[in-house]
Amino acid sequence: MAADIVLARNPDPDSKLPYLLWLPLGDGLVFRTRDTWPRTKALFCHPVSVDEWPENPDIVERVPVRSCVRRGAAIDLVLDRGRENRSQIVYTKGRGRDMVFWQSPRTRKQARPNVRTPTARAAGVEVLTVVVDSHERYAYKFPGQQVETVTAPLACGDYGLVVDDTLVASVERKSLADLVSSLTSGKLRFALAELAALNRAAVVVEDRYSAVFKLEYVRPALVADGLAELQVRYPNVPIVFCENRQLAEEWTYRYLAAVQQAATDEQAAAERILQPPNTGVEKRQPAPPGAEPTTAQIRAWAREQGFDVPDRGRLRPEIRDAWRSALTRPE
Question: What pLDDT shows up at residue 310?
Fold first, then answer.
C-alpha cells in the first residue's frame, strides 16, 4: 500500500464523513473525508490515527501514486492516471481551530475566483425553468437566482430550455479534462452535431482557454486545432471558456434566460406577422353626421361641380355655402 492512495468506506456508522483516505507519506496518513475526490468543492478532512485504518477495509478505490510530497503546510499529490490526477492536502486554520482540506486545481480556483457574480436576475425574466439532463452528475443549482430546475432526459446537452414541450436551447457542460477526453475520442464531434440541430446551443468549459496549452498528457496543439476545426464545422455552437465552475454556471443561466426572452419576442413578432398586411391605402371615411367637413373634402366636391378651386389655401366663402346648400337640398 506504500505506492498507492487507498479510499475505503468508513466503518463508523455514526460518522458524517463516509470515507477513509490513506496517503503513502512516512508511515502513512489517514483522514476521514466526505467524498472520493474534490470534484466540485474542497473536501474537509479529519486526520485520525493510522490505527483507525480497518484490518479488512471495504476498498472503494486504489490508485498508484507518482508523487506524494509535503511542501510547507500542504501535501502535493500526483496520481498515476490521466484524469483527476493532481490535488493537495492543505493544513490551515478556520474558526480558530486547525483544519485540513483536500482540494484539486479546479476547486482551488473556484474557492477564490476573484470575481463576485451578480445576484440580479436576467433582464425580462421573472422565473427561469431549466431542465437538467437526468444523466448529469454534480448538476448546477443556480443559487441566488430565480431558477426552477427539473430533471428529465434531454436529447442533447446537460441544461436545456423547453418551450411548448419543445427543446429550443441546450448547454453542454465540460470540465477541461472531459473536453480533452471527448475531443480526442471523437465523442465531442457527435455531441456538437446533435447540438447544432437546435437553433441555439453552446458548450461551456469550466476552465480557461490558456489551460489547454498547459496539458501534459496530450499535445496542446492537437487540442487547439481540434477545437478550431469544430468551431468551423459547427459555427452555431460556440465553445465558451468560463474560467471556473462558478462563472460557467452564471454564464449558463444568463444564456438560457436570454434564449427564453428571445423566444417570447419571436412569438410576439410571429403573431404580428400573421396579421393581415397593411396595403398602405387608407379608405376615406365619410364624416359623421353633423361634423364639419374637411377642406380637402369640400375642394374635391367643388371640382366635381365645376367650381374653380385653387390647389392650396383657404376656400372662398361661397364654395362652403354651396357645399352646405347641396347637403340640405332635397334629392
Answer: 78
